[in-house]
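Inverse folding, one chain.
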């Protein structure tokens, strides 16, 4: 196993379970123990990891989607572009071809199939990437932010991940979007481990089971963190035994933790013993990665 550049995705089957809590507090704990950490917020619809580290942004980059443009002087209205489009974004009428930009995924298939090379592409902004650092330069930080009204953050997530230089860091923590959508699939693709954050409710269990199915299908080793935990032998305990995915940690249902979160503070810095607990689960994770290879 390569000790440098371990990529850990933090995900959950739904929002509000404590994904950000786990990702940010783990990042802080690993930095305290001397690891070089890159925290990447891939929840591009509503990124908020930066709040907990007072991040200084050094660079902002637009993310564009390439949208087709039809040259009507070359178009023969054959309809091949419409037939190849899987999203209904390009429609051939009797007198012209119309592009519905809001439906286009920028795949480029229409341009490739056009027999008269009548289709070119133009960039359309869908969001941005911010890069910087926190904790006076100790934490490397990247986040994506999707523009309002856009339908998918996948291109932003793909661009961020494609530009990561994992070799510079001991650990890359990827705070994934909630749910099990295409954005989540892209965010956890080619990661070394998945932390599945849940809560001990039936809703939490249902969505945890979806996340478990996803990581199993993608062949990613995983462990569970139970947030707002009140007892050891709850429904998540039984589920964990049944599916063979271990519980790595339980974070108690504690008013103090909730208050600190609401103030943009990390509970590992305020409550004793938690630095050690997050470092312990990191050691466990490294062992599970090694066993899976």
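Residues assigned per position:
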């Amino acid at each position: 196993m390569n000790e440098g550049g371990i990529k850990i995705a933090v995900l959950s089957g739904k929002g509000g379970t404590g994904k950000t809590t786990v990702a940010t507090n783990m990042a802080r704990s690993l930095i305290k123990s001397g690891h070089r950490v890159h925290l990447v917020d891939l929840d591009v619809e509503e990124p908020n990891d930066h709040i907990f580290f007072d991040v200084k942004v050094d660079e902002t980059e637009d993310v564009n989607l390439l949208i087709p443009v039809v040259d009507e002087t070359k178009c023969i209205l054959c309809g091949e572009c419409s037939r190849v489009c899987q999203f209904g974004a390009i429609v051939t009428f009797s007198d012209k071809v119309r592009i519905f930009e809001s439906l286009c995924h920028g795949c480029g298939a229409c341009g490739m199939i056009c027999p008269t090379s009548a289709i070119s592409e133009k960039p359309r902004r869908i969001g941005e990437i911010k890069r910087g650092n926190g904790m006076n330069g100790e934490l490397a930080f990247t986040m994506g932010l999707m523009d309002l009204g856009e339908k998918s953050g996948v291109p932003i997530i793909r661009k961020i991940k494609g530009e990561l230089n994992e070799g510079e860091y001991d650990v890359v923590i990827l705070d994934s979007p909630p749910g099990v959508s295409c954005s989540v699939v892209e965010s956890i693709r080619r990661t070394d481990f998945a932390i599945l954050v849940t809560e001990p409710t039936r809703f939490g269990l249902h969505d945890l089971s979806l996340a478990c199915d996803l990581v199993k299908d993608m062949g990613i080793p995983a462990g569970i963190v139970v947030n707002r935990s009140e007892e050891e032998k709850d429904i998540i305990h039984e589920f964990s035994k049944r599916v063979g995915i271990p519980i790595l940690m339980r974070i108690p249902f504690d008013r103090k933790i909730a208050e600190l979160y609401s103030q943009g503070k990390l509970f590992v810095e305020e409550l004793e013993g938690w630095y050690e607990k997050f470092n312990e689960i990191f050691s466990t994770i490294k062992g599970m990665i090694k066993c899976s290879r």
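The chain is about 30% helix and 30% strand. The chain has two domains: 6-53+135-292, 65-125.
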